[in-house]
Amino acid sequence: VVTRFFVFLYCKCLWRGLKFVVRRFTGRCELQRICYNNKPGARRTLKIESSMRYSKYELLQSALGVHPDKVEKTIDDIMALKKINPDTNPQLGISLQASLLQIVGYRSLMAAVEKLRREPYDCENAEHENMLMKLWKELRPDTPLTGRISKQWCEIGFQGNDPKTDFRGMGLLGLQNLLYFAEHDKPTALQMLQDSLQPKHNELNKPDWEQKNPDKAIG
């Protein structure tokens, strides 16, 4: 409780007081200092995101979730709020816009990935079924599938006769990842599949010390 109190005191009082003093001393707000003291890239973008997230201004907090089409207008509003003259600070608006586009871009990507992960596999969905059949053809191109529900699915790593039951945790994201891997790096995918089906063969190929000391083997 004491630790939380001091953290709260630091964030609400001391830190904001320090930022006020630094701004008075340098004549620059925190966003200006971040942009001018850091090279373009992930480090600067992360600092800008953190500054906006913990800002006392709702405009800066909400800017992190703004639509990409409204980023330019949002930057103009932020500069007006911070009383920054765009004519004397032309590079600042460009830097903030680039970083904010990155922030809203990866946040949108994370939301899309999470939505895909939560989408369950539906055997009644033709698109889902086509993806599953395509995965089989990529990994077993010379072996026809005898049926939608078959023990053959175990040959490519599924647990049972019906592969749809294996997508509970990752949903459709798991199937898409597997299919992408099989399509874009087929040699590696086939090699991994072959290794998984021949564990005894792989064990024999390990160095002698690793066979005798499996608990000390790396990985």
UniProtKB/TrEMBL annotation:
PROSITE patterns associated with the record: ELMO
Q: Where is the ELMO domain?
A: 127-219
Region of interest called Disordered, as start-end residue ranges on this chain: 200-219
The organism's place on the tree of life at top rank? Eukaryota
Protein's name according to its UniProt entry: ELMO domain-containing protein 1
